[in-house]
C-alpha cells in the first residue's frame, strides 16, 4: 500500500552556506518545486528524515522552514502551465 502523502516544503534562509545545505536537503526528497517551495511525497519516515536534515542545516533563530501536509482528499488546482502532482512509482534517494 502506498502511504506517501503530498507535502509542501518551504524555507527562508539568510546565510548562503546554510541556504545551499537546506536546498540540498529538501531537493533530496522533492518531486518538483520552484525557488524555495517544493512538492514532496513523503512517508512518515522520510518526513522525519527531511526534518532532521533541514534541522541541521538551518539556524532556528535566523531562518524559517515550513513543512505543510496537504489533505489527500482535496482537489489540486493548477494555474498557467502547472502540472498536477503525481506520486511517481519509485523514488531514488542517494
Mind explaining what this structure looks like?
The protein is of the alpha+beta class. The protein has a domain at 15-64. It is 28% helix and 24% strand. It is built from 2 helices and 4 strands, in the order E-H-E-E-H-E. It has helices at 16-27, 44-57, and strands spanning 5-12, 32-34, 37-42, 64-69. It has a 4-stranded antiparallel beta sheet with strand order 2-3-1-4, covered by helices on one side. Strand 2 (32-34) and strand 3 form a beta hairpin. Helix 1 (16-27) packs antiparallel against helix 2 (44-57). The mean pLDDT is 85.
Give me the secondary-structure category. Answer: alpha+beta
Describe the main β-sheet briefly.
4 strands, antiparallel
Cα distance, first to last residue? 23 Å
Shape annotation: globular
Cα-atom Rg, whole angstroms?
A: 14 Å
Low-confidence stretches: none
- The number of strands is 4
Which percent range fits the helix content? Answer: 25-40%
Number of helices: 2
Proportion of residues in extended strands: 15-25%
Strand order of the largest sheet: 2-3-1-4
Q: What is the average per-residue confidence, as pLDDT, rounded to a whole number?
A: 85
**Based on the structure, what is the oligomeric state of the protein chains?**
single chain
Taken in chain order, the helices and strands follow as EHEEHE
Amino acid at each position: 500500500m502506498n502511504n506517501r502523502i503530498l507535502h509542501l516544503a518551504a524555507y527562508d534562509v539568510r546565510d548562503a552556506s546554510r541556504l545551499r545545505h537546506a536546498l540540498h536537503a529538501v531537493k533530496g526528497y522533492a518531486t518538483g518545486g520552484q525557488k524555495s517551495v517544493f512538492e514532496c511525497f513523503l512517508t512518515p519516515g522520510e518526513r522525519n528524515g527531511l526534518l532532521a536534515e533541514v534541522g541541521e542545516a538551518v539556524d532556528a533563530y535566523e531562518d524559517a522552514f515550513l513543512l505543510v501536509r496537504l489533505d489527500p482528499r482535496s482537489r489540486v488546482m493548477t494555474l498557467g502551465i502547472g502540472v498536477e502532482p503525481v506520486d511517481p512509482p519509485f523514488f531514488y534517494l542517494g
